[in-house]
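Input (structure):
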């Protein structure tokens, strides 16, 4: 939109509070009698400022350089006005100021986009997921400081080279504290989060072109660890004298027979146990991660564990005495060692065990398993089906038996002859 706006740009000063002998220099933008002011982050002694010219007295080389800088600022303000005019936008003093500072929608920066995204998804994502976004934000800040020597860049500066360099930075990052570096899939998750933020910027019209257009996420498909039928039996039959180990073992087995994740078990309360139409007890809850509705019939082993701790819970709003995730995983490694299981056992292995050994291996349809696990996509459940070689062998054996029965039926049928 074109307007007949009037533009005024002048420099003025204010005395420093910390030192009255110095003046801070500001620029004032005036459009149609409306003002916007901003500091140019420069100061000058009172005696060296010419109040009539609104410039420094050129008594030495430093003051000549200062005036040159003021001329550059003046030119940039005029250029910001010209850009807004050519874009047919309403011209205001504040709009020119924001364009000059790079804070309007056409000059949105990467880190401000990240901050906007993280602040506005607080109510949509769980604490753990939000923490991952903050982790990606920290990687971006360090990458910009170490590789670009800056705290931020404009979104329009994002390109394929920036994305590839950022990926390589995470892969080769050496943390100050001793911890594991990112695996390939860990790196890809960081890149996926950055991609989502960039897509948000495109939808907000802060960015015209997608810098991820030619970039592909490359996740490596890893086999999920789970307990075999024999290993699950070893877990069940091993008894521990240490109370904490016994509790961890029971909670783990409860997950093996319900498919519930750590956080879902921790939040279980008595009001979520219902008697179903079949007369059996069911768990009615929602997955905290996805908010998907879950209705899980309790298997006998899971019922036994609930009964065991029925009168041992101090707080009435919890069903089971769940420790912290870190303590659970630490104790599980000790339990696995005692049981002679040479696998990296974490609490999430119980959920995988439910999907494979407890359900799919025993002929439960994959659609039912997907529903019990609270997966939003069947393809997620199919990950577990890939590792079940035993199930594949059984299905193919059933197919061969079917072919043999048909062949036998044909051979026993009376033959007809034609002349």
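Output (sequence):
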């Amino acid at each position: 939109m074109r307007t007949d706006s009037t533009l005024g740009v002048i420099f003025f000063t204010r005395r420093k509070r910390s030192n009255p002998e110095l003046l801070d220099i500001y620029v004032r933008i005036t459009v149609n009698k409306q003002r916007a002011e901003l500091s140019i982050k420069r100061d000058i002694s009172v005696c060296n400022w010419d109040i009539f010219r609104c410039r420094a007295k050129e008594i030495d080389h430093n003051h000549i350089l200062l005036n040159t800088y003021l001329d550059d600022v003046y030119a940039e303000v005029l250029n910001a006005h010209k850009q807004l005019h050519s874009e047919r936008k309403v011209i205001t003093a504040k709009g020119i100021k924001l364009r000059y500072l790079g804070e309007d929608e056409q000059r949105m920066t990467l880190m401000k986009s990240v901050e906007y995204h993280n602040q506005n998804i607080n109510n949509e994502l769980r604490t753990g997921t939000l923490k991952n976004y903050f982790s990606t934000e920290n990687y971006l800040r360090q990458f910009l400081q170490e590789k670009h020597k800056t705290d931020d860049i404009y979104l329009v500066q994002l390109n394929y080279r920036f994305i590839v360099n950022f990926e390589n930075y995470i892969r080769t990052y050496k943390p100050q504290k001793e911890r594991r570096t990112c695996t390939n899939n860990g790196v890809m998750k960081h890149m996926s989060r950055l991609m989502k933020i960039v897509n948000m910027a495109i939808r907000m019209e802060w960015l015209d072109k997608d810098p991820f257009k030619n970039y592909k996420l490359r996740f490596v498909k890893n086999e999920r660890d789970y307990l075999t039928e024999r290993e699950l039996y070893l877990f069940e039959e091993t008894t521990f004298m240490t109370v904490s180990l016994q509790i961890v073992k029971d909670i783990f087995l409860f997950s093996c027979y319900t498919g519930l994740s750590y956080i879902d078990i921790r939040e279980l309360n008595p009001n979520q146990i219902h008697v179903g139409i079949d007369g059996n007890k069911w768990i009615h809850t929602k997955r905290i991660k996805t908010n998907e509705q879950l209705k899980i019939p309790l298997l006998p082993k899971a019922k036994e564990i609930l009964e065991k701790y029925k009168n041992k819970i101090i707080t009435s709003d919890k069903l089971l005495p769940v420790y912290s995730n870190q303590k659970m995983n630490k104790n599980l490694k000790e339990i696995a060692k005692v049981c002679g299981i040479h696998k990296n056992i974490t609490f999430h292995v119980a959920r995988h065990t439910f999907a494979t050994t407890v359900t799919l291996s025993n002929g439960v349809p994959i659609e039912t398993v997907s529903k019990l696990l609270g997966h939003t996509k069947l393809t997620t459940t199919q990950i577990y089906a890939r590792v079940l070689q035993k199930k594949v062998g059984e299905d193919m054996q059933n197919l061969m038996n079917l072919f043999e029965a048909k062949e036998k039926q044909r051979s026993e049928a009376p033959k007809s002859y034609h002349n």
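Notes: The chain has three domains: 7-106, 108-203, 229-394. The chain has a mean pLDDT of 87.
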